[in-house]
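Standup notes
- HV: blocked on the assembly model, inputs below
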Amino acid sequence: MKKIVKDTIGHFKVMVKHSQLSYEPSPVHILKRMVKPLCRDFAELLEEGTKNDTWQVIEGFSMVCSKALREDQNR
Amino acid sequence: MAVREDRLHLPIAVAELIKRMSQSEQAALLSHFTWQELKEWEELKRKTESQAVLWPEPEVYVEIGAEEMSFEAPLEKVIPFLQQLVQDMEVEEVTVRFHKNRERREWQGLANEFPEMLWNHREIVNDDAVVIEYGQNTMYSNGGGCMMLNTTADAKVKRQIAQHFLDLCGYPHRVGSDRFIALVRDGRLEVLEE
């Protein structure tokens, strides 16, 4: 897996994880610490990535989402 | 969605007013409401109380999860903590991915060279998203002390990391559980789950 793919999935996971924490992050926190890194990853993927990279990113996102939903059901 | 404190002032004031009424005054007041309304308010109060704990952002936060650990640290503790992880995870090499002048960069080096790297790039490490690979473990440090560690480490190591983190932040606590959540608000450590 390419590093940009791994990092994009990781940054998405950071965002999903924040929705499960025991406090509510502020809008500035969400923007600076989660949205901005993801936006930069997306821009790099569009510029330098392949279709396969994009597919792998979506697959990774889907796995993160499935896991989060399972955890949510088990709470 | 959590309930913000400023939205709680009116209900708290009304509750206080009712508390100060005599029994006959309370009975007269309650006669204006239906049983259904009272039940709905009780439910709202229960939800409000359970959600109020979510707000605001803590000064320090640590959570041990199954595959990841989440942290919120004061800014000055970020670099010492990232250095500490080298010892906790017993790695000899570290890889760091970051952005400088809008370009993606990668640094790879020995564990003993890592502190100097962090110090030389402290402005980026403190404020921007940086990805650090400690062997099989990946730290997503998002700037401002917001961090998530994706880890394959065993439970003992994860407990040790959480304990060292709290020590470093000035809130020593013996972490005795694999499922652990603690936060610091108004300078006080609260263990939410252990």
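- HV (later): unblocked. The mean pLDDT of chain A is 93. Chain A touches chain B through 23 residues (CB under 8 Å).
- Next: hand off to the docking folks.
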